[in-house]
Amino acid sequence: MSFPDKQQRKVCWDSRDRYWACLDDQNIKDSSEKPKACAEFRRLFEKSCPPKWVTHFDRKRDYEIFKAKMQKEGFEPIKESQ
Questions:
Q1: Cβ neighbours of residue 57 under 8 Å, at least 6 residues apart?
Q2: Overall pTM surpassing 0.70 (yes/no)
Q3: In this structure, are residues 42 and 21 in contact, taking their beta carbons and an 8 Å threshold?
Q4: Among 41, 37, 38, 33, residue whose Cα is nearest residue 14
Q5: Angle 62-49-39 (CA atoms, 0-180°, nearest 5)?
Q6: Alpha-carbon torsion angle 32, 18, 51, 26, nearest 10
Q7: Other residues' Cβ atoms within 10 Å of the Cβ of residue 44
Q8: Count of alpha carbons within 13 Å of 80, Cβ hemisphere only?
Q9: Given this model, what pLDDT does residue 70 score?
Q10: Sign of the CA dihedral 16, 19, 25, 27?
């Protein structure tokens, strides 16, 4: 697939957003989980976007969820041994 034009990018982003909304509805927090309820959305997402974009968007969603969790719950720094 060559670099997507404006219309192709819009289709890609729309399919990504619908897939992510389905994952949110299913309370899925990890991109490695692919519920059957979202299978059609995932298929459209993968069909509408270049493969590298799909990988990027999966990682991006995982990172955004992790970041929100860290901001909400905080973290405990690693104690250095002396």
A1: 16, 45, 49
A2: yes
A3: no
A4: 41
A5: 65
A6: 10
A7: 17
A8: 1
A9: 86
A10: negative
CA distance 46 to 29: 19
Q: Could you give the CA distance from residue 9 to residue 26 in angstroms, rounded to a whole number?
A: 26
CB 49 within 8 A of CB 12: yes
Please tell me the distance from the alpha carbon of residue 42 to that of residue 54, in angstroms, as a whole number: 10
Could you give the CA distance from residue 7 to residue 30 in angstroms, rounded to a whole number?
29
User: In order along the chain (82 residues), what is the average pLDDT of each group of 10 residues?
Assistant: 82 96 91 88 96 95 90 76 64
Q: Residue for token digits 């969790």?
A: 69
14: left (phi over 0), alpha (psi -120 to 50) or beta: alpha
Q: Whole-angstrom Cα distance, residue 41 to residue 16?
A: 8
